[in-house]
Amino acid sequence: MSLLHFSIIAPLILAIFIPFFYKKVKAIHTGWLIVWLPALLFIYFIQFLPQIQNEGAIKKTVEWIPSLGINFTAYVDGLGLLFALLITGIGTLVVLYSVFYLDKKKENLGHFYVYLLMFMAAMLGVVLSDNLIVLYVFWELTSFSSFLLIGFWNHKERSRYGAQKSMLLTVFGGLSMLGGFTILSLLTESFSIREIISQAGSISTEPLFIVALILVLLGAFTKSAQFPFHIWLPDAMEAPTPVSAYLHSATMVKAGIYLVARMSPVFAEQGIWLWLVGGIGLVTLFWGSFNAVKQTDLKAILAFSTISQLGMIMSMLGVGAAALHYDFLRENFYMGATVAAVFHLINHATFKGSLFMVAGIVDHETGTRDIRKLGGLMQLMPITATIAFIGTFSMAGLPPFNGFLSKEMFFTSMINVLHLDIFNLETWGVLFPVIAWIASIFTFIYSMMLFFKTFTGKRKEEHLKKKPHEAPIGMLIPPIILAALVIFFGFFPNVLSQSLLGPVASSILPSLMDAGHEMDIHIQFWHGFKPELFMTIGVIFFGIILYKTMEKWTPIYGKIPSFFALNYVYDAGLKQSEKGANRLTNFYMNGSIRHYMIYIFISFIGLLTYAIVRNQAFLLDTADLAPIGIYELVLSLIIVAASITILIAKSRLTSIIALGAVGYTVALFFLLFRAPDLVLTQLVIETVSVALFLLAFYHLPKLNRKEERMSFKLTNAIVALGVGVIVTLIALSAHSQKLFDSISKYYIENTAEKAGGGNMVNVILVDFRGFDTMFEIAVLGIAALGIYGMIKLRLSRRRNE
Amino acid sequence: MEILMAILIGLLFASAVYLMLSKSLLRIIIGTGLLSHGAHLLLLTMAGLKRGSVPLLGEQAESYADPIPQALILTAIVISFGVTAFFLVLAYRAYQELGTDNIDEMRGSKNND
Fold first, then answer.
1. Which domain of life is it from (chain A) (predicted)?
2. How many contacts (CB atoms, under 8 Å) link A and B?
3. Of A295, A324, A338, A580, whose Cβ has the fewest other Cβ atoms within 10 Å?
């Protein structure tokens, strides 16, 4: 176990001690005891940076289940390291923020930090695992810990609803992903991502490959809130704000993006990958930004904005995959899309994290997050307003913040789609830049909404629960750091590009490694009058117009039929499936024994008929039959007559006597068929049974003793007849096809010689096969004890007294 | 003979199943009685009928009837008797406690679910 492995599970180890700290150390906020760990991990991971740049990836393995090829292999390359830095860096800030956000006395901090640390370890595990199964284990751990964090305030109904929804959707995706991983491992006989990538070329022609691709993408899309699985994210906003900032903007929702980036070398050769990732990403981008505009809750706006930005990153990753198809081009600008995706991923984590923290501060200091009740907070909360200004303008893609750079790169890559002439992109490709541009206008509108409606305009203090004032400094430090990064990356993007983006892009597109130099130039080149600059100007122009005229056109949102709201589909689907399952169960589990017996007998008939017909098993061989004697004929007639009497008898007494008649006739059959012991037993037992039947009959309740004939039911008759016919057919064909002789010869020869008896049946019962007899005695004993118990034990009556 | 027996057994099974699908508890138990008769006869028939003498060595016969199915049937008779006796007492107790022998009325109470 190396230090690297230890650092991945360190949060889990710390989590074990949290309840102890929480109980024993009352004086200080539990968060202070935790904040050092992510900070330490951040410093530890940043040390890998030069190593990755110079030597490439680092790989360390600890055996877990070596016989199945499942090992805890930690693999640090550019992509994994970028995520690890995001997780630990923003993790530190979020823990710091939560110290001031969550009240020491009112909240159950012990639980909160255990869940948060669990999540942190799970995320680190996801991004640093090379083994698919280990990745899946950590992946599900993120789902579980996210579930716990969303439902942290579990006394609120909305929290529980949001937690359940996110759980159902992400676990659905997680299980699909497991299916995809399993197929991949079957195709390549390995769980290692490195190994699978090295075989990517040879497995891409397998028919199951596309299935694996779609299943893995399902996992990524549900986790990263892509259309139409984005619906859980707005409801996850019921979580405490530090959780929203950490999980639902910076880290967990990017796990899907990580997965897409990680699996790109495996799948990206397929055209469908480009279409799915790029197309779904664009749809999500548009739908998220379109819906964000109509929200009135700060966190809901941010949630939809997260959805839309995740879609943007996803679409860039999809377009970036085109680089693999176009490596013969001199200027490899599709790779630029991948670089842009990674760059925007970092930018989004910084500005969205700070914006969530701002939303939390506003909520904390005013008591509401509703933008209709907020306004004019600029003078009261100048620092918060500044941070919000930086964050929203960066999100809108305005200079000089980092969002501007990544948006320009985004436009560049979308315009480059026009140059593609594969996978029918020449006809539909034009939609890429158009949708991207329209979505950017909406992004601009909600960003402006977010800032101006909260911090400018008239003050509405009468609506607020608290008197608003500036937040404590501790709560402001984390968003200040993030906002500072927004500006820093905006002015000095090359610090980032040279250190981190290069290695990340080369781990997403490893087969294009040799084109690395060209790529470096591309990142640094960010000035010049290109079409994308005019697109941005257009975004600002139309954005301002639409923002100013918002009152006029927002009513269209009310006109969209509710069916298009996917929440409606989700809720109705859940309700209908519950109702349907309930109805189905009530339909066939109706509590009537007769029905269940009919199911059993019909399956019996059906399965056996199928088996006979399928194998053409029916055969009638008349060669080896005994002759029919007059006695047997007479006895048969008696049994037939007695059975019919039982069926049609009006009185139950008649039925009982007819049953006795059948029993005695069977005894006579035994006589004819040379079985004296059976005759004796059958006679005695039939007598006792009939006596018992009469006893039970005698005690029938007085009320129901009116005799009535069994009413005829056609279904019952058909089922009964079917069973009889099947039994006869099977008996006949079994008798006609005997495969070998009986072993009875041995018994006949050795009864006297080895067992010293003359009665073969008795010798078999007590000597050759004495065990059967022993347990048969046990059965009788149990029956006797049971009967005694039933008659003697009267617990219910005693209780009633 | 075996064909005749097979048809007879089929008839026993059919009547047994028809009785087991009825509403009255007593008829269901009568049905199980018929079913075990059918099964016992089936066991015997499948071994071949009327071949050789009674399986007693004292008979000094050239061939004997197969003793194994007879031993099996003997065991089965005793077991089915034990079970039938148990069921009958159960039915008797059910009459006493519930006051009905109609299985459609035996659906438990809402409280006992």
1. Bacteria
2. 270
3. A580
SS3 labels along A161-193 = HHHHHHHHHHHHHHHHHHHHHHHHHHHHCCCEH
Distances (CA, A) of A335 to A257, A357, A532, B89: 16, 33, 17, 83
> Could you tell me the residue ranges of all domains in chain B?
1-51+64-103
The answer to whether the CB atoms of B8 and A633 lie below 8 A apart is no
Residues A455 and A545 in one domain: yes
Q: For residue A576, is pLDDT > 80?
A: yes
Which residues, listed in sequence order, are joined to residue A131 by a DSSP beta bridge?
Answer: A192
For residues A45 and A59, what is the distance between their CA atoms, to the nearest angstrom? 14
Is B1-51+64-103 assigned to CATH 1.10.287? yes
Mutate to test the interface with B, among A619, A631, A733, A748 (most CBs of B within 10 A): A748
- Please give the pLDDT value at position A330: 42
SS3 category, A776 = helix
Tell if the CB–CB gap between A731 and B70 is shorter than 8 Å. Answer: no
- Same domain? For A665 and A601 the reply is no
Rounded to 5 degrees, what angle do the CA atoms A734, A738, A741 make? 140
- For residue A561, is pLDDT > 70? no
A chain contacts of residue B26, beta-carbon cutoff 8 Å: 652, 655, 693, 696-697, 700
| A520 and A599 share one domain | no
Q: Which domain holds residue A377?
A: 270-558
CB contact under 8 A, B82 and A639: no
Q: How far is A756 from chain B (nearest CA, A)?
A: 11
To the nearest whole Å, the CA of A678 is away from the closest chain B CA by: 6
Identify all chain B residues contacting A784, using CB atoms and an 8 Å cutoff: 82
DSSP character for A32?
G
Instruction: Give the ipTM.
Output: 0.94
Supply the pLDDT for residue A196. Answer: 87
Q: Is the pLDDT of residue A333 over 80?
A: no
Mean pLDDT throughout A360-385?
83
Percent of chain A with pLDDT over 70: 91
Asked if residue A170 is part of any domain, the answer here is no
Give DSSP secondary structure letters for A493-551.
HHHHIIIIIHHHHHHHSGGGGGGHHHHHHHHH---S--HHHHHHHHHHHHHHHHHHTHH
